[in-house]
Amino acid sequence: MKNAPSSSDRLRYIKLIHVARRELRMDDDTYRLMLAGMQGLNGATSTADLSLPNLIRVLEQLKLRGFKVRPTKVQTRPLADDEQSKKIRSLWLSLHDLGAVRDSSEEALAKFVLSRTKVSALQWITPAQASWVIEQLKQWIKRVEP
Length: 146
Hints:
58% of the residues lie in helices and 0% in strands. The protein is mostly helical. Helix 1 runs parallel beside helix 3 and helix 4 runs parallel beside helix 6. It starts with 6 loop residues before the first helix and ends with a helix.
């Protein structure tokens, strides 16, 4: 590999490409066909075979298909760790496992809580509001469970 800035740059792009592939729900065959069909990659079907400029081209192709790079967010406040918050988080993750929630992140959960309680974080909801959110999540699980 000629003139590669560093292996850490390559690894960063490879990881980003795999995140994009997962978020776009692209199966292995579709992904490899996309790579094989891209001009200038000389038929490569794996990121391991690509130079940094070609990895950047693959990422740009995935962006054209709808992938959006999100900056890594630094958690600025500690997570709520009371029992009700843990239960809410557990139910949220269960809904994600059932396929009812696409984004299992704490930010997505906070948006859900905000939409229900008009309070923007689990740390600030009252016990009564937390109980209400728990009941809503339980009902949602009942609706989507097989």
